[in-house]
Structures are given as C-alpha cells and as structure tokens.
C-alpha cells in the first residue's frame, strides 16, 4: 500500500525536547543527544553522542540476517528449537503483503536494523511451513485452558469473526525508548484496512532476586544514574522482581486481556546458589483498540 505523508517527532533519548519534520516516506532522522545536565559535576564522564535514527520499510534483501539474530535473542535458550531462517523470511514477506511494519536504522537503508515491529496474520499462515512450527512451539507452552490457545491454533472453520496478528517487536536493548511508540503507531495505522481485532505480542522477560550487581544490564536507567550521582561510582543492586526486557511492554500489560509467561524448554535448571537473571518467554493478548491506548500512554511517558 502507498505510504502516507506522516509527521514524526524527533525525540531526545535523554531529554524531553522535541522538534518536528515532515517526510513523504518512513525515513525520519531522530537525533539522540546524551549530554551533561546542568547539575552534574565537572568530573562527570558523560559525553555527547549524536545518532541519527531512520525509519524504513522492511527490506528483504538487507534485513534478514539481523532479524534472525534478534529472533534467536528473543528465543534465548530455545533458539535451537526453531528454524529462524524461514520465520525471518515470513516476517519480511508479511510486511510487504500487508503493507505494514517498520525498521529502525542508523547508517542508511543498506545497514542492519537496530529494531523492528512487524506482524504475521495467524489464520492466514497457520499451515505455512515457515510459521506452523513456531505456532506449535508457542501452543505447547500453554495450559490446557487458555484464551490464547484458540487464537494460536485456530480451527479450519472459524467459530467467530476475530482476526488475530502475532506481533514481533524485536530490538537491541539499548535502543532509545522514545523511538518505540512511533513504530507501533505506524504499524496500527498501516494495519487499519486489514481488520485485525486482536494481537498477540511475543517477547521475553526476566526475574531478579534483588542482590545482583553490575550485570551489564542497563535497567532502571534513570534511577541508577541518580543513585550513582549521589553515591559516587557505587554499584546499586538491581531491584528484585519480574520484568519485561522491553520497558514499553509494561504499558501493553496494563491494558492486556491476558498475559502468559512460560519457562524456556531447554534452560538449565537453577539451584539455590544460581546467580544472575532467570529468563522466560511471554505472550500478551490485547485487543486492537486497547493497543492503540497503550501506544498513546507510551508516547505520553516519553514526553
């Protein structure tokens, strides 16, 4: 489908300042400035980094390798259970067929994407050999009674008029959060003619016991920076609890119809002395209209 002219906000990853520009394609430069704030000490090691982020349509000739890598990252311990090559091809081809989905890049269209949001029509592809093994994998994680079961394994004769898409939100962990609402907004706008009633978001999460320190995870970013300013370079223990890897998914969880978590099938067993994050898979069911509201909440939180 043709791309409509759209206005995207240029959002700083560290500050709330914005500027606006209009483009006839998805491409939009977004500059990230990480600067010392006025209250920082003169000895601060924070430097300024300028990065231009561009939004692009999917490019099957360029994006496949990066999508396979991001799929394996999300599959975590179970990455050997799924052949990600045909799955990556399907995500790209569905993007072209539906006219929906975007990637974020920093070095032109021929560069690898840092992140992407795409969707696969579940009923349309349920018997597709590129997709059915992944559907069976997801269905095998569900309890016998689950609102997700009928949607992930729909009967050949539909009992109701719902149309469900499986959303793949794949990205590098350090991609600036203010970029993400734009990906979802564009996706929902492009999918509007397709009549999707519900979406299932696939992702992963992690658990922390609360005594882990310095694990290289850029979590609770703002609180950690503030704590370090107060206490020098002291390492702050990470907060105990269960979290999503992508913080924007918390906004989706808040209005979701159902959230299902499952342990990875091939994850090593943890004993009492195990240290570090415990990963798990996630499936989130949300209606089309509720997802739109969640994206608005994401956008407001980034301003």
Automatic annotation (TrEMBL):
Residues 1-44 are annotated as: Disordered. It is found in: Nucleus. GO terms for biological process: protein transport. Residues 12-24 have a biased composition (Low complexity). Keywords: Nucleus, Protein transport, Transport. InterPro entries: BCP1_family. GO terms for cellular component: nucleus. Pfam families: BCCIP (PF13862). The keyword Chaperone does not apply. The keyword Nucleus applies. Belongs to the BCP1 family. Involved in nuclear export, actin cytoskeleton organization and vesicular transport. PANTHER family: BRCA2 AND CDKN1A INTERACTING PROTEIN, BRCA2 AND CDKN1A-INTERACTING PROTEIN. This is Protein BCP1. It comes from Kwoniella dendrophila CBS 6074. The lineage of its organism: Eukaryota, Fungi, Dikarya, Basidiomycota, Agaricomycotina.
């Amino acid at each position: 489908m043709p791309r409509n002219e759209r206005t995207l906000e240029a959002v700083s990853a560290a500050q709330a300042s914005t500027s606006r520009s209009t483009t006839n394609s998805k491409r939009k430069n977004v500059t990230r400035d990480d600067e010392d704030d006025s209250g920082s000490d003169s000895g601060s090691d924070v430097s300024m980094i300028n990065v231009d982020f561009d939004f692009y349509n999917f490019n099957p000739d360029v994006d496949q390798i990066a999508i396979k890598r991001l799929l394996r990252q999300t599959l975590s311990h179970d990455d050997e259970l799924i052949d990600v090559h045909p799955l990556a091809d399907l995500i790209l081809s569905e993007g072209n067929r539906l006219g929906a989905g975007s990637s974020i890049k920093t070095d032109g269209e021929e560069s690898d994407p840092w992140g992407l949001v795409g969707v696969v029509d579940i009923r349309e592809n349920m018997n597709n050999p590129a997709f059915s093994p992944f559907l069976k994998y997801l269905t095998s994680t569900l309890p016998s009674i689950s609102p997700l079961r009928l949607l992930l394994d729909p009967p050949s004769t539909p009992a109701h008029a719902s149309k469900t898409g499986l959303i793949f939100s794949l990205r590098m962990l350090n991609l600036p959060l203010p970029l993400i609402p734009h990906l979802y907004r564009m996706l929902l706008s492009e999918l509007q003619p397709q009549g999707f009633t519900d979406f299932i978001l696939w992702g992963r999460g992690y658990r922390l016991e609360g005594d882990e320190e310095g694990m290289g995870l850029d979590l609770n970013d703002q609180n950690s920076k503030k704590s370090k300013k107060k206490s020098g370079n002291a390492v702050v223990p990470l907060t105990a609890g269960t979290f999503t890897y992508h913080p924007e998914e918390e906004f989706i969880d808040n209005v979701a119809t159902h959230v299902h978590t499952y342990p990875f099938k091939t994850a090593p067993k943890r004993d009492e002395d195990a240290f570090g994050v415990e990963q798990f898979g996630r499936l989130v069911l949300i209606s089309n209209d509720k997802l739109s509201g969640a994206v608005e909440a994401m956008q407001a939180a980034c301003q």
